[in-house]
Amino acid sequence: MKKLYIISSFLLLSIAAQAQIYYRFSGHVRDTLDGKPLVKASINIDFGKFGAVTDENGFFEINIPYGEHAVSVKFVSYRPVRDAFKISSDMTRNYALGRLENELEEVIVSSKGVEANVQRPLLGVNQLNIKTLRKLPAAVGEVDILRGLQMLPGVTSVGEASNGVNIRGGTTDQNLLLLDDIPIFNPTHMFGLFTAFPSEAASGVEVYKGSTPARFGGRAAAVMDVTLTQPSLDKFKMNGGISLVSNRLSLDIPVIKDKLGVMLSGRASYNDFLLPLASKKLDGIKANFADLVGKMFWRVDNKNTITVSGYYSKDFFQTELLGGIGNINATSTQYDYRSRSFSARWFYAISPKLNLQTTVVSAYYVPKTLLPELNSDNKVTLLSDINYKQAKTNLNYSFGKHNIEAGISATKYKVAPGELQPGTSPSVLAIKTPEEYSLETGIHAEDEISLSPKTTFSIGVRYSQFYALGPADVQVYAPNEPKDPLSVRDTLSFARGKVIQSYGGFEPRIGLKYSINDKTSIKFGYNIMRQYMQVVTNTTTPLPTSRWKTSDKHIRPQVSSLIAAGLFHNLPGNVYELSVEGYYRTTNNIIDYKPGADFLLNSNPEMELLQGKNRSYGLELMFSKKKGEVTGWINYTYSRSLNLVSEGSTFGEQINFGKWYPANFDRPHSFNASVIINQGKHHDFSFNFSYSTGRPFTMPEGFIIYQGVSYPYYGVRNNARLPDYHRLDFAWNIYQPSMKDKRFKGNWTFTVFNLYGKKNAYSIFIRTEGTRVSPYKLVVFGAPIVSLSYNFKFM
């Protein structure tokens, strides 16, 4: 027994002695490309317990105890390397670090080429990197292009469930939204909760909020150009995902190798039973959507290619809140809106420096409101539609120091503002408002000239002409009097195809870039844009069923003039990017509504509308880190957007007594930050933080009691503001690169939207109950929203 005790004690002492033995851990740290030693690179072991730095030969040496250890090797402007090992004797390990400037850009906001933001003569142009966008936190795990856009400077939204974005003081309908040249009239699903752009099928997004190329027209504020991914011509590919909101699947099918390929991408959501988990305000709501995009690419020969793209979307939304339409006794309100569109492009390479592109586009948008009647199977239907047809040709020519683009276009509009179909209801009268017909033509030319190694000049001009066409009956109002039924003096009838009214004018586009050095440039830009089609609404955010209205004899087109200037700087190594931009924009003939306006089934909406001026200005600062273990950006914007509406001296011809007032989306201060932490091949983490001043709203100045009921009195427009908005989001992406089938890759995404549960106010409204008046705050997302999605790719 004594011998056993001695032996046991000896073994324990041996193990303890071994645990305290230190071994020599050494090696070299070098550059991956040229093999040069990295001097004073830091070696960090076990999160700071042990450490060392390399000498002039890139050599390090350190004594560490027996066991398992984690090491981190870092050097300025290089991507860090992490390693794990077990040491039981002296060990040598060498490390090679790669320069960040040699990596591809990983940040969501980037430009064409490493130094394009400094060298291009364009301001306010951003690209959204779809690959990086998938890493960012998203509401209920649904990747959202529009929410990514809101993280840019100068881009805001009136709320978390709003339909679209406001860019540099513009309304949502002042943005031209294109999907492979197809205009998107309703950019969201579920009344603004999610974007209508399919991220699985998108290859890139360009946003023009400053200098806009001359080929774009028809909108007054900005352009968002989304490009669908090009079909593969040599390999079958499949990717998709499953989330709490939707299921997605995309297919790349090479039909004829190196000749013909087809891409199909679909998304569908039938998980509306989960909406109450996101917010109690969504309880009792039924909602689902589906969209489908397709793209065919045919390489006819070395000089000719043909591309055909198609887009279809369908939304259904039901709420127990009732819309007030006549004397309809409905049990609920159902919204059914659909888009059906396509584009076809023929590309002809006449020579290596000269090419011709001809495109035809057709878009059809049909929003419906369905009202199921009480104690009946009948549904009263309110519907409208937009029928859009376009043909255009662009010629591109490069020679010497010139890059020239010229083209022509013609766009035909047919708008059905509204039709009430009673179905079998005997108490509802059928109503149909007159259809609107119009034609818009345009011609443009643009040249980008390299005047010197430091100076690049871009000059372009677009001339647009718009015709409001018959058939139509047009009211003639008494001059210098408000447009109302009492001032109608005559009615003019126009036959089909006859010109009712025409508008037009030049739209110059100028951009100038001067390079102070290879890393720094200053830029100046100026443009004029005209908009002949707009949304008329008396809500803060346009609903999918809001009325679109073309210009006519009484509604003049909106004309916007923008001046912008900026300083752009890339730090050495092209890892960091800094920009400062300022802008001033004026818009004539903006549309606002009279108090108590009602556009529903109104054949003469000009009686409810007033036109005036908008003045918007701002300063945008942005700093981004484009490469490395930690990437991301921060930006701050100070901006104002003010309206002045005064068409006459009477109360009914003015808003806010003819004085300037904040626009609905005027938010002076906004701050955004996005950070992506890349943790090797298996994990990355990301955070989004957003802050902005609360948007304006109109608060009653007093109350009038009539027959025992209180009625609010409104005087000054937008005289109060909602509380400031702020929100933090988090996402964790878990990758599976070690699967046996290397052609199949999958990842899980865990997201927490509104991490600290901020109850941001979407709106504040007044409710009267007898003599009692109570304010209420509407909150859409008042708690953290946790989601989990799985994404896969097969190649």
UniProtKB/TrEMBL annotation:
- Where the record annotates domain TonB-dependent receptor-like beta-barrel, the positions are 324-755
State whether keyword Protease applies.
no
Q: Using the record, list the residue span of the signal peptide; answer none if the entry has no such feature.
A: 1-19
The entry's keywords: Cell outer membrane, Membrane, Receptor, Signal, TonB box, Transmembrane, Transmembrane beta strand, Transport
Work out whether the entry's keyword set contains Membrane.
Answer: yes
UniProt xrefs under InterPro entries: Beta-barrel_TonB (IPR000531), Beta-barrel_TonB_sf (IPR036942), CarboxyPept-like_regulatory (IPR008969), Plug_dom (IPR012910), Plug_dom_sf (IPR037066), TonB-dep_rcpt-like (IPR039426)
- Compartment list: Cell outer membrane
**Where's the TonB-dependent receptor plug domain?**
144-222
Superkingdom of origin: Bacteria
Q: How does it sit in the membrane?
A: Multi-pass membrane protein
Q: What Pfam families has UniProt attached to this entry?
A: CarbopepD_reg_2, Plug, TonB_dep_Rec_b-barrel
The record's comment on protein family reads: Belongs to the TonB-dependent receptor family.
Q: What is this protein called?
A: TonB-dependent receptor domain-containing protein
Native organism is: Emticicia soli
